[in-house]
Design a protein that fits this description.
The complex is a heterodimer of chains A (342) and B (363). Among the domains of chain A are: 164 residues, P-loop containing nucleotide triphosphate hydrolases (Rossmann fold); 70 residues, 2-Layer Sandwich (Alpha-Beta Plaits). Helices cover 31% and strands 25% of the residues of chain A. Chain A is built from 11 helices and 14 strands. The N terminus of chain A is likely disordered. Chain B has 363 residues and is mainly α. Chain B has 15 helices and 4 strands. In chain B, strands 2-1-3-4 form a 4-stranded mixed sheet, with helices on both faces. Classes of the chains: A alpha/beta (342), B mainly alpha (363). The interface between A and B is medium-sized, with 30 and 28 residues.
Chain lengths: 342, 363
């Protein structure tokens, strides 16, 4: 999926293989100057896409979502990242029909969501909760039946899920007797019990140890292989980086970036370099086309203007002495996030 | 899946949970003991006719005629000794002139009455009611309605808060209509409450049979029969409001605060009916006020103060009031169920637009 760029808050410049006009200035103003591309819509109606279109929502005077538009595509894990209060949970609650948008709409496979559609969705709310005194199995069966499944199907699904999530032994314990990690697994099972067509998971990995994260990741992967679109939010950017196919970054209620993880990473990779020289790297400050990001004696990290040549910088460095290392910086998701969400 | 099967699933879960609940079991046992006590105790305390020792045979005939257990003794001294020994409740001694009654510490009214020349009595209420029963019956109806609507009401409210507190409500609302949740809870509470009072009614009736008090049964039976429809309507009316109260808060700990008005609505009629059960104008008024009618009307029927048409009218008033209050309760419930930031005021929940927008969205 190509990066989806949203007007007017886009910050992603589609620079991959497209140098574009050389107008690169100081790093932070990159995107504001670029021409916005319209959102990719060709997929809608063709594949199974959950689409949010220009969702707005205020709580009193506080505008929580501004023209939120993005896609969650079938068979892909879409990571939804943003700071606390950026609007992730509000967006998810609107998808699930637990909250109404002030304007805009959510569509699934091209048509507006109905309650029937939503019943086929799996949802893990931000704040966890199952009935504390009910056993894991009983409440999974109950929730599956509320989603319209027959008792036989539900029983089969529950047994399978408990196995997958290594919860089999605790199946007949009340949820309140489970460890937090196991409660979390039960919560994930609750979102999956009715074989949902779409999965919306708010912070599914919080409170899980690395082993449990892997277990859950496997379960979710298995769902995406079946063609289920999965939207999940997380603060654990390393997990998101490892897991997601697509990424949606939200800040202050607006989508700052949306697209495939790789294209986003590429977009932020091309023009940042790190260098380690023999002497002091301070001269880089005066090098044309270079804007320093970080300077620490012989080490420097810098961004390069679109029309500047990285090899010219390298040659300039070699003219001044030895170069220990030189190369492009692949930004971590955390860095991209920090930059985009600023 | 349609709404009615959702309601059935929801009610079934509530029933399954409640039936294992200690509060439910304890309150059921408490009521059963109360029912047994109130039917058996009057027979025990009433004690039947006094036994009386007497020497004079003419007096003995009179006393026998009054249905007393008479023991004929040799002389007055023997009669007095029989009382002192505790063989009999009383003795009648005839020292030539008027008879006098001897007893240990309590004047035996039935003996005294048998020897008295009673003035003509015209009973305005010929179905004389045992004074203990006259007290116990209003108390019984009041306490059953009070405790049942309070405990089951609170449980409904708690079950609503639990779903809010755990946020499972978001999962539920994403899959079933809000109203199905409300109806399922009220139905389950109603079934349990009704089962509980039906059990109490059966035990009460059986108790009166066992104590061989057929007259009592014919007196109390019709009011119990009426109590049930009043109870059902009253319970559902209050249950919808209890659910609304539960939806106003986010934590079980906060429930006490918001449920205070509900507790008063249940408690005030309870005390009014108990303390003013012999004040006819007040009881008449109470038997038409929806919150006190479930107790006051059966009591008035029991005491014979209500005309045959009155329970119908009162029940009609209640049905209307219940319809209105259920509508209010449902609206407040829906208006506050998904508000998770702090306590919601009744008014804010009633005016809530979100729930109606969501309803539109889902149609």
């Amino acid at each position: 999926m190509a990066p989806t760029v949203n007007r007017p808050y886009d910050k992603i410049n589609r620079r991959v293989g497209d140098p574009g006009p050389s107008r690169r200035g100081p790093r932070r103003s990159i995107a504001r100057r670029t021409t916005a591309k319209p959102p990719v819509r060709s997929l809608i109606g063709m594949t199974k896409v959950l689409h949010l279109e220009a969702i707005n929502r205020s709580f009193g005077d506080r505008r929580v979502l501004r023209d939120v538009t993005f896609d969650v595509t079938a068979g892909r894990m879409t990571g939804f990242v943003g700071a606390n209060g950026a609007g992730k949970t509000t967006s998810m609650r609107i998808i699930l029909g637990v909250l109404a948008p002030d304007s805009g709409e959510v569509t699934w496979q091209g048509s507006r969501l109905t309650r029937e559609d939503r019943r086929s969705f799996g949802y893990m709310p931000e704040e966890r909760g199952l009935y504390p005194k009910m056993t894991v199995r009983d409440q999974l069966v109950y929730l599956g039946r509320l989603h319209g499944l027959s008792l036989d199907t539900v029983r089969r699904n529950v047994a399978e899920l408990l196995e997958w999530l290594s919860l089999g032994e605790r199946a007949d314990d009340p949820v309140e007797n489970l460890s937090l990690g196991n409660q979390q697994r039960a919560q994930i099972a609750a979102a999956l019990v009715h074989d949902p067509d779409v999965l919306v998971l708010d912070e599914p990995f919080s409170g899980l140890d690395p082993m449990a994260v892997d277990t859950v990741v496997n379960v979710l992967r298995e769902r995406t292989h079946r063609g289920v679109p999965v939207l999940f939010s997380s603060h654990q950017l390393d997990v998101v980086e490892r897991l997601c196919d697509d990424l949606v970054i939200i800040a202050d209620g607006s989508i700052r970036a949306a697209g495939s993880r790789d294209s986003l990473r590429d977009a932020y990779t091309q023009h940042r370099f790190s260098i380690v020289v023999g002497g002091d790297a301070g001269w880089l400050r005066d090098q044309p086309g270079v804007s320093l990001v970080d300077l620490d004696g012989a080490r420097a990290v810098f961004d390069l203007a679109d029309d500047a040549d990285d090899q010219a910088v390298l040659r300039a460095a070699l003219d001044r002495g030895p170069v220990r290392s030189f190369g492009p910086v692949t930004p971590s998701l955390a860095e991209i996030f920090r930059e985009v969400a600023r | 899946m349609n709404t009615s099967s959702a309601i059935r699933l929801i009610a079934a879960r509530e029933l399954k949970v409640k039936i294992k609940d200690k509060t439910f079991l304890i309150s059921t046992i408490f009521f059963l003991l109360f029912a047994i006590g109130s039917t058996v105790l009057p027979a025990v305390f009433g004690g039947g006719a006094s036994s009386v020792a007497v020497a004079d045979s003419a007096t003995a005939t009179t006393l026998r005629g009054a249905g007393l257990e008479v023991r004929q003794v040799a002389d007055n001294a023997a009669a007095e000794q029989a009382v002192r020994d505790g063989d009999v409740d009383a003795a009648v001694v005839t020292g030539g002139g008027d008879p006098s009654v001897l007893a240990m510490d309590e004047a035996p009214s039935d003996v005294v009455n048998a020897l008295s020349v009673a003035p003509e009595v015209r009973l305005l209420n010929p179905d004389a009611i045992d004074p203990i029963l006259a007290y116990l019956v209003p108390f019984g109806f009041a306490i059953v309605f009070f405790f049942t609507s309070l405990t089951f009401g609170l449980q409904i409210a708690q079950s609503v808060v639990e779903e809010k507190q755990t946020r499972i409500v978001e999962i539920l609302v994403a899959s079933v209509p809000t109203r199905a949740l409300l109806v399922g809870k009220v139905v389950a509470g109603g079934i349990l409450a009704l089962a509980q009072i039906a059990l109490i009614a059966v035990v009460t009736i059986a108790g009166t049979q066992l104590t061989d008090n057929g007259a009592l049964l014919s007196m109390i039976g019709p009011s119990i029969g009426w109590f049930i429809p009043f109870f059902v309507v009253g319970f559902v009316m209050l249950a919808a409001l209890w659910a609304a109260m539960g939806a106003l808060v986010n934590r079980v700990e906060d429930l006490n605060g918001v449920s205070m008005p509900m507790q008063l609505v249940v408690m005030v009629p309870f005390f009014l009916v108990i303390f003013l059960s012999d004040n006819k104008p007040v009881m008449t008024l109470l038997s038409y006020i929806p919150f006190s009618a479930p107790t006051a009307m059966p009591v008035r029927l029991f005491t014979g103060d209500a005309a045959g048409w009155e329970p119908f009218l009162s029940l009609g008033v209640m049905v209307l009031a219940a319809a209105a209050l259920i509508a209010v309760g449902a609206r407040v419930y829906e208006g506050s169920l998904l508000r998770t930031n702090g306590k919601t005021s009744f008014g804010a929940a009633f005016r809530d637009k979100e729930s109606r927008r969501l309803a539109d969205l889902n149609n």
